[in-house]
Amino acid sequence: MAIIAVKGTHDILLDEASGYAYIEKVFAAVCELFGYRDFRTPVLEYTEVFNRSTGEGSDVVRKEMYTFLDKGERSVTMRPEFTAGVARAIVEHKLYATEDLPLKAYYYGPVFRYERPQLGRYRQFHQAGVECIGVNSARFDAETIALAMEILGMLGFTGLHLKINTLGDEASRNAYREALKEYFGKHIDEMCEDCHDRLRLNPMRILDCKVEHDQEIAKNAPKMKDYLSEESEKRFYTTLSILNSLDIEYEVDDSLVRGLDYYGEVVFEVHAVSKTGKDYGALLGGGHYDGLLSALGGPEMAGVGFAFGLERIYSVMKDDGLLNDLETGIDVYVMPVGEEVLDDVFVLTTNIRNLGYSAYTPMAAGKLGSQFKKAVKRGAKYALIIGSEELEKGVAPLKNLATQEQKEIKLDNLAEELDAIFGLEEEHHHHEE
Ligand code: HAM
After folding, report:
1. pTM of the predicted structure, to 2 decimals
2. How far away, in angstroms, is 155 Cα from ligand 1 center?
3. Which of the residues 184, 296, 365, 404 has the least number of beta carbons within 10 Å of its own beta carbon?
4. What tens digit of pLDDT does each residue of 255-293 get?
5. Whose CA is nearest to atom 11 of ligand 1?
6. 3-state SS of the chain: helix, strand, coil percent to 5?
């Protein structure tokens, strides 16, 4: 067997990893602006956590989980999403009793689903998301959607397509499920095997079926909006009117039901097609839920949240050139000229790092021409050239590798020299913006 990455997983290396790190940084910063706190839960959970919450009616739980018995014969699962684990942690640590509510948690990391790999679809992928738990409010629902859009805006996305729908309260959903059962019951003989299970477990899942013939049948199915309670309808319009007042564009899509079992009231997804025309699938999905904490042994408490697929965010940003200006290179590449300066160059490089500038030296004296090539490859901004003469005089040439401009700097005054140069560069950037 070839020694390669497991099917459906992928390495994220070098420039790509810098891209992911940048997305996560912007994501976390905007979450903090909205009063969210970092939240980290284990990759492994007892399988029960997902069965009870994400739901036995969902494809994710029924077919896609990485579930196995550990050495103590306990059934454990590598999380297929974060929401269930976050809710489990809040219940386990009784944070609903000790923290001011709503508790606002953000998270990012790997998740696992045994799906058929294809464009935008992996078996190990990465999510970044939030949960706002403990206050039942159409306004927090709206704020959560606004947060998702703000993050995408900060990342430079334009032309986003926000789809939104309401699944109503429990009574609305039960009435709707009955209507769907009746309708699909008449057609089930012509429908796929999966839909037979869905009809039994949760007929709303049928609306998500990807089989063309089943989609045709689903087109004429009863519509959620005809089964909404007055209260759910009012609640939905409260959320929509806040989005209006924030100038957030959306499309109400009554076929949007989402693939996980815990949702009720508002649900949403954001789609974007990259400039290359590739459709990687939904960039994010989310919605409101009511029974999640109680299903895990906690109190009746509502929540709302969403999760981005980082692979999809990254792919669209890459295709659209939104990651071109990422600075990944080092600040100063220190070039030793001659073996005899290597020790001093080592110390000098360390000093530059201690001043807060990234620095690299090859630890060997090579030809200057090849050193310049390597510096460019490393994305260095400046080259500092050090021979014994420079060390003697205490003055060395610092070359801007973008403009080729060169300036002599005093080595015993490095802090001021570098601050002046990098400070100027900052200012220059600001002028350009
Ligand atoms: P989800 O829609 O299952 O929701 O996943 C969220 C996002 O993860 C999707 O929109 C997509 O971008 C990405 N994604 C899903 N599956 C894959 C895959 N196989 N490969 C690559 N990316 C994928 C949830 O997981 C909910 N926990 C979201 C949520 C939070 N709802 C409330 N709070």
Report:
1. 0.95
2. 19
3. 404
4. 899 989 999 999 999 999 889 999 999 999 999 999 999
5. 309
6. 45, 20, 35
